[in-house]
Amino acid sequence: MSAGSYRRTWKTWISFAIIYFAWGSTFLAIRVGVHEVPPLLFAAMRFAVAGLVLFGWMAGRGERLPSRREWGSILLVALLIFVFDYGLLFWAEQRVPSGIAAVMMATIPVFMTLSEIVFLGTQRMTVRLGLGLLVGVAGVVVLISHSLHLGGAAIETVGAVALVFASLSWAVASILTRRLPLPVSKGISSGAQMLAGGVMLLAASAGLGEWRGLRLGSVSSGAWFALFYLIVVGSIVGFTAYLWLLHHESPTTVGTYAYVNPVVAVLLGYLLGGEALGARTVAGTLLVLVSVVTITTRQKTA
Questions:
Q1: What is the DSSP string of 234-268?
Q2: Please, which residues have CB within 8 angstroms of residue 94's CB and are 6 or more apart in sequence?
Q3: pLDDT tens across 182-241, in order?
Q4: CA angle 160, 292, 77 (to 5 degrees)
Q5: CB within 8 Å of 189: residues ≥ 6 apart
Q6: Mind giving me the DSSP string for 70-117?
Q7: What's the mean per-residue pLDDT of the chain?
């Protein structure tokens, strides 16, 4: 093996480790932060800072800045992903264990597929897709149903509903990004979306009165470290590794992080966050992951 191939192999392993474990661990970091800082404000601080750094870095490298038309698309996508999706996720993690939140967010491919079948007509229902969708729905029901006696309490209904809407919002945004005029540079596009989303979250946080009575001086060092971790590791380092992998590995291989992140989040929530790991959590997680694997590894049909 040549020196160049050896270096690339190590970079590949390190990059996969980052998007597998760093992104999986962000759910616990969110939970730590939102128990001390209002959720929308905490999300705003994460994405405004990370977006400013990423956008500034890419612009400094000479990447083309977004046009006026592209900024319109960026604002729409940022609203769906960062205000609705992440805003609801941060809010829900005050009520739902971090591992379960990650599992619920893993249903995004289910909603994307449903949208493609029902609204876009770019997919047609097959036996494989139908089974995958049913299994995914069953996994969500196991996690939220109060009538099933599987050990362990079902998650709070309002938190579960928020996570479902968060997943749906991300799915809609993902489909729109295929049709909206966005910058060619993924770094510029994502940095601009993060920055715009952070600003909108900041405005929403102020409008909802999250700043009233807030004393940042009383926030613990653990919550500040969680914010630092989300900005640096979760957003900047994680996205850089993701971009590098997209240029050197197949999208299908890179997309396997969607299967690994929920497992990492559930285990970290159990080992470090004191979250329950009973039959309900295990069964719901397995059903959702089987659904995601079934749907995302299918052969696409027009």
A1: IIIIHHHHHHHHHHHS-HHHHTTHHHHHHHHHHHH
A2: 34, 35, 39, 159
A3: 998 888 999 999 999 999 999 999 999 999 888 888 999 999 999 999 999 999 999 888
A4: 65
A5: 66, 74, 182, 183
A6: HHHHHHHHHIIIIIIIIHHHHHHTTTS-HHHHHHHHTTHHHHHHHHII
A7: 87
Instruction: Average the pLDDT over 67-79 and give the result.
Output: 95
Which residue type, as a one-letter code, is found at position 125?
Answer: M
Q: What's the pTM?
A: 0.88
Place of tokens 């967010």: 105
How far apart are alpha carbons 63 and 67 in whole angstroms?
12
Question: Could you state, in order of their start, the residue ranges of all structural domains in the chain?
Answer: 3-209+219-296
Instruction: Assess contact for 229 and 255: CB atoms under 8 A.
Output: no
Total residues belonging to the chain: 302
What is d(CA 243, CA 2) in angstroms, rounded to the nearest whole number? Answer: 24
